[in-house]
Write a structure and sequence with these properties.
Elements lengths: L2 H12 L3 H10 L3 E2 L2 E2 L5 H12 L3 H11 L5
């Protein structure tokens, strides 16, 4: 599955775009405009996405990658 397919599937499942999820992560203090917030590990974002949006590990990791700046 391509990276874009993961991002598309996350949006279909959550109703939130990758940018919207990044904004929510920023609001929760898990991320900032440059990526993960200082001291925050990917696991914290994965746990949040699994708990709040019922995402699987791979789909949650695609959002971590998005937050870190990956776009393709």
């Amino acid at each position: 599955m391509s990276f874009q397919a993961y991002i598309d599937n996350v949006e279909a499942k959550t109703g939130q775009s990758a940018d919207a999820l990044k904004s929510i992560a920023i609001g929760k203090g898990l991320a900032d405009e440059n990526g993960l917030a200082p001291g925050v590990k990917a696991g914290a974002i994965i746990d949040w996405l699994k708990d709040d949006y019922d995402l699987g590990h791979g789909h949650a990791m695609s959002i971590v990658a998005w937050i870190k700046g990956k776009r393709n």
